[in-house]
Design goal:
The structure is a single chain. It is built from 15 helices and 18 strands. Helix 2 links the parallel strand 2 and strand 3. It has 4 domains: 137 residues, 3-Layer(aba) Sandwich (Alpha-D-Glucose-1,6-Bisphosphate, Chain A, domain 3), CATH 3.40.120; 86 residues, Alpha-D-Glucose-1,6-Bisphosphate, Chain A, domain 3 (3-Layer(aba) Sandwich); 107 residues, Alpha-D-Glucose-1,6-Bisphosphate, subunit A, domain 3 (Alpha-D-Glucose-1,6-Bisphosphate, Chain A, domain 3, 3-Layer(aba) Sandwich); 81 residues, Alpha-D-phosphohexomutase, C-terminal domain (TATA-Binding Protein, 2-Layer Sandwich). It has 448 residues and is an alpha/beta fold. Strands 1-5-4-2-3-6 form a 6-stranded mixed β-sheet, with helices on both faces.
């Protein structure tokens, strides 16, 4: 991670930290590092109000560097990964702040294989920002990409591998968080025969992620109950993650999604090799269930890029994060919320049962999570006083769980996670640790 790039690209408040000037410079730097002469880039964005401004700046930066630009418009982040390969482009760029509030935005890049850039590539781009820019002899073209959303939707429906999958009779609530999945997810599910109840499917940049989507499951949960639906799907603003709510109101998170897929493939002899990839935040319950069946669970640092790289290294077919980023390596090299939903519905159809029943086969340990505001989380996470607080919390658990404190890669926060075999123990330990860290931040602030 560089000072500019976080765990998922460059992110910050639009027009303050993330300015058009920075977008132009990032495009030029990325061109010099990653795109050959006469190369092409595909740009997509979510629905944020600042999106067109940053799209114009990013496109101008690439064109001035001699890179032809294809504009995909408002489209889920994973669609850019697909379109890079479909168009045989050299680079992809997405303008989105994922699940962040409307005033934020971000820029993340994908290489010609559709994967997010490695850390050393981001370091190279950041170094190039300080160097001189030599304009191309002639400005390159900027054009709208034809039928980008239609082609991506066809890819999603084509990911169904069972010939007889028919979702007729299923009622599914979908919450698109006023983001990029709104124009596509309802169409895909209806194509497969489902009755779709739409929530927040308008592409509204002023309301993206506000009280809805994968970070506010109460919205979709209430709709599932009201409509007596069979399932609820909640996407984030850029569509690279999904969380589910069962007919009974139970949350099905990314860990249980991975467990459902792995168990199903195990039963059919399809999980080869017997490896799944998760992060340090993944629930121990998933690891326990899979280990009992001889499956190795590889943990990485937080970030679906880290998961993807470990999956490639180990040849794993499935991996992801509890937040709902799930990667189906046979279909895509990055997390895709709609693809995940489609594949889960296929599995439920093949298993002749519902997803809640399948999720109950992966019992999870209780967890408690607190986000502690911190101006410089990386600095505080490395302080001896913070380490001492973590050690104290671990002793309080008495070997019955684990503690993770990590700086957010996208926001000025310390994320505190406590996992144990008892919810009250989790909650108490997490609250005491978070309070201690808040005091330490207060002590550190005057000297900062």
């Amino acid at each position: 991670m560089t000072p500019l790039f976080g765990t998922d690209g460059v992110r910050g408040e639009a027009n303050r930290l993330l300015t058009p000037e920075l977008a132009v410079s990032l495009a030029r730097a990325a061109s010099s590092c990653l795109v050959p002469d006469g190369g092409r880039v595909i740009i997509g964005r979510d629905s944020r109000t600042s999106g067109p401004m940053l799209e114009a700046a990013l496109a101008a930066g690439f064109a001035s560097a001699g890179v032809d630009v294809g504009l995909a418009g408002i489209i889920p982040t994973p669609a850019i990964s697909f379109l890079i390969k479909d168009e045989r482009a050299d680079l992809g760029a997405v303008i989105s702040a994922s699940h962040n509030p409307p005033e934020d935005n971000g820029i993340k890049f994908f290489d010609r294989s559709g994967c997010k850039l490695a850390a050393d590539q981001e370091i190279e781009i950041e170094a190039a920002l300080s160097g001189p820019f030599v304009p191309a002899p002639r400005a390159a073209t900027i054009r709208r990409l034809e039928a980008a959303a239609t082609r991506y939707a066809a890819f999603l429906t084509g990911a169904i591998e069972s010939e007889d999958v028919d979702l007729s009779g299923l009622s599914i609530v979908i919450d698109c968080a006023f983001g990029a999945t709104g124009p596509i997810a309802p169409h895909v599910l209806r194509h497969l025969g489902a009755r779709v109840i739409e929530l927040n499917t308008a592409t509204d940049g002023d309301r993206i992620n506000v009280g809805c989507g994968s970070t506010h499951l109460e919205t979709v949960r209430a709709a599932v109950a009201e409509h007596h639906a069979d399932l609820g799907l909640a996407f984030d603003g850029d569509g690279d993650r999904v969380l589910l709510v069962s007919a009974g109101g139970r949350t099905i998170d990314g860990d249980q999604v991975i467990g459902i897929v792995a168990q199903h493939w195990l039963d059919r002899g399809l999980l080869t090799p017997r490896v799944v990839v998760t992060t340090v935040l993944s629930n121990f319950g998933l690891q326990k269930v899979l280990a009992e069946r001889g499956v190795e669970v590889v943990r990485t640092q937080v970030g679906d890029r880290n998961v993807a790289q470990a999956m490639i290294a180990r040849g794993a077919k499935i991996g992801g994060e509890p937040s709902g980023h799930v990667i189906f390596a046979d279909h895509a090299p990055t997390g895709d919320g709609i693809l995940t939903a489609v594949k889960l519905l296929e599995i439920a159809h093949e298993a002749k049962t519902d997803l809640e029943t399948l999720a109950l086969r992966i019992p999870l340990y209780p967890q408690a999570l607190r986000n502690v505001p911190c101006p410089r989380p990386n600095e505080l996470a490395g302080r001896k006083a913070a380490a001492a607080l973590v050690t104290k919390a671990e002793k309080a658990l008495g070997g019955r769980g684990r503690v993770i404190v990590r700086p957010s890669g996208t926001q000025p926060l310390l994320r505190v996670l406590v996992e144990a075999d008892d919810q009250s123990l989790c909650d108490r330990t997490c609250e005491e640790l978070a309070t201690g860290l808040e005091r330490e931040i207060g002590r550190a602030s005057p000297a900062a």
